[in-house]
């Protein structure tokens, strides 16, 4: 009888150890780095094929980076003429500007190509 009980105890211990060993492997699914990357991309404008891309929503006073993938030089110029106005050299050139501190929707254009239009929303 004593010997039998000892075998049962050993079996239980083995099962418990096995279950505990499995737990850490099943828990590693989250990847927080992905969300951090998309958050920083929200303050970037990429000009491509004479377009500014999707409308952008940024916090007031955010630092914005503009990258110009076209060969032509472009500008990011607020339609109101004063909120922001930067030139961006072509072929991967970059420029930075500060989003307005006053919340609102700011339409902008390219001074060289008046058919280019974009929208920046400040919250
Ligand atoms: Cu342009």
Would you write up a description of this structure?
28% of the residues lie in helices and 33% in strands. The chain is an alpha/beta fold and 123 residues long. Mean pLDDT is 80; it is low at 9-41. The chain has 2 helices and 8 strands, in the order ααββββββββ. The strands form 2 sheets. The chain has a 5-stranded mixed beta sheet, with no helix packed on it. It has a 3-stranded mixed beta sheet with strand order 1-3-6, with no helix packed on it. It has a domain at 42-122: Immunoglobulin-like (Sandwich), CATH 2.60.40.420. The protein is globular. Copper (II) ion binds next to loops. Copper (II) ion (CU) binds next to loops.
């Amino acid at each position: 009888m004593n010997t039998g009980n000892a075998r049962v105890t050993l079996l239980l211990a083995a099962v418990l150890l096995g279950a505990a060993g499995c737990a850490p492997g099943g828990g590693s699914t989250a990847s927080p780095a992905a969300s951090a990357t998309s958050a920083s991309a929200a303050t970037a404008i990429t000009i491509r094929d004479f377009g500014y891309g999707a409308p952008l929503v940024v916090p007031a006073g955010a630092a914005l980076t503009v990258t110009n993938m076209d060969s032509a030089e472009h500008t990011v110029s607020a339609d109101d003429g004063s909120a922001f106005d930067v030139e961006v050299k072509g072929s991967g050139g970059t420029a930075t500007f500060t989003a307005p501190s006053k919340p609102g929707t700011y339409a902008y254009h390219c001074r060289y190509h008046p058919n280019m239009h974009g929208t920046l929303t400040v919250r």
